[in-house]
Every structure is written in structure tokens, then in C-alpha cells.
Amino acid sequence: MIELPSRTLVKTITWRTYTTIVGVITAYLLTKSFSLASAIALSQLIINTIIYAVHERVWLRVQWGVQETFELHRRTIVKTVGWRVIMLITATGITYFFTGNLTTAGSFALIQLVVNTGLNIIHERIWNRVQWKKS
Prior knowledge:
This protein is mainly alpha-helical. The chain has helices at residues 5-31, 34-61, 73-99, 102-129; strands spanning 66-67, 70-71. It has one domain (5-129). The chain contains four helices and two strands. Strands 1-2 form a two-stranded antiparallel ribbon. Helix 1 (5-31) packs antiparallel against helix 4.
């Protein structure tokens, strides 16, 4: 499957939009501080956007689970699990950096894990149907 970098960029932007909204809400509910929630979400936005783009480009080189231009469900699940492990680590680290509280950091990461895993599967399946910049 060939996917142009512009497709990866737009896919990255849509994904990061969803997760930034979830991140601000989750961090605010846990910290009761909009400035702290914003700092956590902004840091995640910057760091995870780079990681997500690299993750997508690496997976484009892996042909397992691809049929012509269509990604099979099992590939989507494996990509999602791998991505969520990476995000569990970064969410915990970033939140701990700003709060200094491991319980808050762990809670934030676990909530994001659950919510964003579902969102990630939906996001991948939607983009799987979009043929723009894909051959």
C-alpha cells in the first residue's frame, strides 16, 4: 500500500484533534486546573504528533495485513495495541512531569488508554475507507 505523506499529515491532524480534546477534558477533571490541563494537552499534542507521524510511516513499510489498498481488521488491531502502549508510556510521563503525582499520571494514562483505544480503532477504520492519496 502506498500512502503519500500529505495523507499521513491530514490523518495525523485529525487524530491529534480528537485526542487533544479528550486530553484537555481528562486532565481538567483530574487536576481541576485549566492551565495544568492545557499544559499537559499541549505537550502531548507536540510530542505525540511527531510520534504518530513516524508510527504511520513505519507501518506503511509493513505489508502484513494489507490486501491491495485495504487494511485488514487484524492489522488495525495490532497497530492500535502498539500505538496504545506507546501512548500509555508518554501520557504517564508527561502528566507526571507536570503534576509530580504518580496517581494522577497513572489515572490520566489509563483513562486515555480506554477512551482513545476505541477512538483509534474507529479512526483507523474510517481512514481505511478514504482513498484520497492512497494507492
